Amino acid sequence: MKLAWLGHACFVLEQDGYAILLDPYTGVEGYPPLEAAAHQVFCSHQHFDHNAVEAVELLPARESPFTVREVPAFHDGQGGALRGENTIRVFSAEGIAVAHLGDLGHQLSPEQIAAVGPVDLVMVPVGGTYTVDAAGAKRVCEALSPKWAVPMHYRHTPYGLPNVGGVEDFLSLWGPEQVHRLEGPSLELPLPSPGVWVPEFV
Is the bond into 190 cis (omega within 30 degrees of 0)? Predict the structure, then answer.
């Protein structure tokens, strides 16, 4: 399974040549217009920086190798009263399960943790303001116990929403041996070591 970060909370997940695109964005400061192609597109919620499906070229339909599990959640810590609902999705193929948490704005309940189930990797927002912050993201990772975590939805100047935090606060909560910085946007699963893997936007 291959995973590539396209910036913000947007990823392409690929298995056997089948591509799924997650949370396509538009209008996020610094990032160029998104150009991507995929067989399927999933949006965690309907905000502009997560639902720009018009920016994605749809590839010819074919059978997907992925199974998809959805878990309802919220965009804030007040049951969606501030920013609405958010959908967590778990994608599984060839014995590997990865979870995209979208704009998760709260700690997961025991029921939500059980619904997510065992996952090998989580894509977790870490920038705060609109989502959990660095400490909150670390607690979510501890609750789900994945082998690997990939941070998203943070500012790395000149890229990202201007009022969200960077990734360093999140990385500081892990041991140095647990943080793996990549020189590009792509990861191939399984990864060789547990911990946090930080793709580079190019």
Answer: yes
